[in-house]
Design a protein that fits this description.
The complex is a heterodimer of chains A (265) and B (290).
Chain A lengths: L15 H4 L2 H17 L3 H17 L4 H25 L5 E5 L2 E4 H27 L2 H12 L9 H31 L9 H32 L18 H19 L3
Antiparallel strand pairs in A: 1-2
Helix pairs in contact in A: 2-5, 2-9, 3-5, 3-9, 4-5, 6-7, 7-8
Chain B lengths: L2 E10 L7 E11 L4 E5 L6 H8 L7 E6 L2 E4 L7 H7 E4 L12 H11 L4 H14 L16 H13 L5 E5 L7 H18 L2 E6 L2 H7 L2 E6 L2 E6 L1 H5 L2 H6 L6 H13 L10 H18 L1
Helix pairs in contact in B: 3-4, 3-5, 4-5
The chains are: A mainly alpha (265), B alpha/beta (290).
């Protein structure tokens, strides 16, 4: 059995970025996304791009992995660029190829929009690359904590998230096991008409549901047996603490924002 | 049907950081109608091995031959369906694969998939129920209303109803109480004899391998570590210890007795109780001579 299955695209590591508090990372990303929309000059874009790429390098995640995460959006980035280039007609004609005019303004707009896209996606993907799903859940719980005042079930939500994350690999293994058992009994998942293939799913889904319900029941029982009563007064095994490196990261990021705003036109 | 593995290599997720070689130059031969046991620790490649027998996995290198079916690395195999009909695999915790509304329908699921006729299926369901020692009345119950042991028997019946010629058992007694384990193994052995099946048993139990198997293969880290007749293999204590396996209790006991009392007792697959009887008669005879 291959047990090294990963959820999402988390790549374990010990870089500075890996060791930052997940809340730090989420907050910085949140404000980075906003800042990107403020940039409007060559310099401001250059600063943000340098910051994003610098951070990506600092994660020490192999660049091939980073690129793999971006794969599904390359199309969108390039499409946005081309759409602007061919459809919108603003500014002066820059040059003409085979009788088709290229406008200066459209070129610039296409380029900046694509760059924004690229920056947003690159930077947000760094979160999932360097932070385990459990850490993200913890951070979300902690960041949403103030919402408790308005009776928003923050703890329950976080618990549900971590339980579902925990059981994704388990269920996938289970599904693989059952599909193999049914394939051995002559089920063909790969060929046949759509109708045949739909009905081939039933012998897979029913046992999967049965075991998921059984697992849920056992888990609930085990939690109760160990005195679980919900979030009230519950302490944590992984306490989130801001360290010096987190403050330094915030400070550095503030400088980046200031520089971006300062170089706006 | 005989079963042959020839220089089989299997690699999971080749060309990725998660590449993992589960089988390495593995060869094995199980003659038609014989009973082979495969022993090894978790991660030694046993599960990968058995999935090659009916083509769930296809070798990265090498060939697997089951009767007239040949599965070769890198080739398309069109006869997987026929092969799967002839090889029944009882996976670990087979009760997890039950899904139909009634026991009868679940047992009939395999044969139906392979296009067996209705009348024949009915007969097979009855035979399979009998083979796993469940009563005829069971067949209209929901499999989910049964006890764990009964569910497992229904699932096994579902495999037997395909009338396989090769039966592969992946730790079929896991999670049963000692008595249930013994009954289950005796049931499989009876089927093996009656139907002339070629049986491959994957197990942790050295005792079961010693009692039922004609040949034993010991696996370690994807490679064949030892092979031979159970008694011969299990005599090699030191080698077994190298892969953290113990000599079967009976043999360990026998050796101690022989060393302590200086008697020689022939081992013919006796149980511990039978062995004790042999021992008393042997000792009694010794007394008589003195």
């Amino acid at each position: 059995m291959n047990n090294s299955m990963i959820i999402g695209q988390y790549v374990p590591g010990h870089s500075l970025i890996h060791r930052l508090d997940p809340r730090t990372k989420i907050l910085i990303i949140f404000f980075f996304v906003i800042t990107v929309f403020f940039a409007n000059s060559v310099w401001s874009y250059a600063i943000l791009t340098a910051f994003a790429i610098g951070t990506a390098l600092a994660t020490r995640v192999p660049l091939s992995f980073v690129a793999k995460g971006l794969k599904p959006v390359w199309f969108l980035i390039i499409f946005t660029f081309l759409l602007h280039l061919f459809v919108s007609r603003q500014g002066d004609i820059l040059f003409t190829v085979l009788g088709f005019p290229f406008y200066e303004e459209s070129l610039i707009q296409g380029a900046t929009l694509s760059l924004r896209f690229f920056l947003l996606i690159l930077f947000t993907s760094l979160l999932t690359l360097t932070t385990s799903p459990i850490e993200i859940t913890d951070a979300i719980e902690s960041l949403l904590h103030p919402l408790k005042r308005i009776k928003f079930p923050v703890h329950e939500l976080a618990l549900m998230m971590s339980i579902s994350l925990r059981f994704i690999p388990t269920l996938m293994q289970e599904a693989e096991k059952i599909s193999k058992a049914q394939a051995s009994r002559g089920v063909d998942f790969r060929t046949g008409s759509i109708k045949d293939r739909m009905s081939a799913i039933i012998p897979l889904l029913i046992p999967l549901f049965v075991s998921a319900f059984k697992r849920a029941e056992e888990l609930a029982m085990a939690m109760e047996a160990r005195g679980y009563q919900g979030g009230e007064g519950r302490t944590k095994i992984r306490e989130l603490v801001f360290y010096k490196k987190d403050y330094s990261a915030f400070l550095f990021f503030l400088l980046v924002i200031a520089a971006t705003i300062g170089t706006r036109m | 049907m005989e079963l042959t593995f020839k220089d089989v290599n299997y690699i999971y997720s080749p060309g990725t950081p998660f590449e993992y070689r589960a089988l390495e130059n593995f060869s094995m031969h199980v003659p038609s109608g014989s009973f082979a046991a495969v022993i090894g620790h978790t991660g030694s490649g046993k599960s990968t091995l058995i999935q090659h027998i009916n083509g769930l996995l296809q070798p990265t290198e090498g060939t697997v031959q089951v009767g007239g079916f040949v599965i070769e690395a890198g080739k398309k195999n069109k006869h997987l369906r026929d092969l799967r009909e002839k090889t029944g695999i009882v996976f670990q915790y087979p009760e997890h694969q039950l899904f139909e509304e009634t026991v009868e329908k679940d047992i009939a699921f395999g044969p139906k998939n392979f296009g067996v006729e209705e009348a024949e299926i009915e007969q097979r369901v009855a035979d399979a129920l009998e083979a796993v020692q469940l009563s005829e009345e069971m067949k209209d119950k929901s499999p989910f209303d049964l006890s764990g042991g009964q569910m497992r028997r229904v699932a096994i019946a579902g495999v037997l109803a395909m009338k396989p010629e090769v039966l592969v058992l992946d730790e079929p007694t896991a999670g049963l109480d000692p008595r249930g384990q013994k009954e289950m193994m005796e049931m499989f052995y009876r089927l093996h004899e009656q139907e002339g099946l070629t049986t491959v048993l994957v197990t942790h139990s050295m005792e079961d391998a010693l009692t039922y198997a004609d040949s034993v293969v010991i696996m370690n880290e994807g490679k064949k570590f030892m092979e031979g007749e159970p008694l011969e293999v299990f005599k090699q204590k030191e080698q077994l210890r190298d892969v953290q396996l113990d000599v079967p209790e009976v043999l360990a006991f026998l050796e101690k007795v022989e060393n302590r009392l200086g008697v020689a007792i022939d081992y013919r697959k006796q149980s511990l109780a039978e062995l004790a009887k042999d021992l008393t008669s042997e000792l009694g005879r010794g007394d008589g001579h003195e």
